[in-house]
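Hi Y.,

Following your request, here is the sequence exactly as I used it, all 117 residues.
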Amino acid sequence: MKKVSIHAVQRLFWILVAVIACSLTTLLITPRQAQALSGNCSAEMVYDAVGTRGKGRCSSLGSDTKAQVTLDISIGVDRHSAWFTKTNTDYYTSYWVNNGQGLNGFPRSARVDLAPR
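Below is the corresponding structure, written out as tokens. Let me know if you'd prefer a different format.
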């Protein structure tokens, strides 16, 4: 059997310590991506002579968050506003209008959806 010198063992030990230290440093220094979206928002359904639409606003939004108002249509296509990041402003979806045939569903609720910017 071949004999291993103590210097070779020490060298391998310190190489292993250096690799572990570099790995830990990389993990600790790397910035983490945001895990949660944030915003203080509210929405409601608005009824007028034209039809029904969703109205929403956010009093605050996280720096990495955008928002969109959604009018939830049961058995139909949901209506959406444009995505927005400006706070304290009202945003509206397009109108839902009853076509008299029952094929376009009916509005259930309005909400504000959040997504990463």
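The chain is about 20% helix and 40% strand.

Thanks again,
Q.
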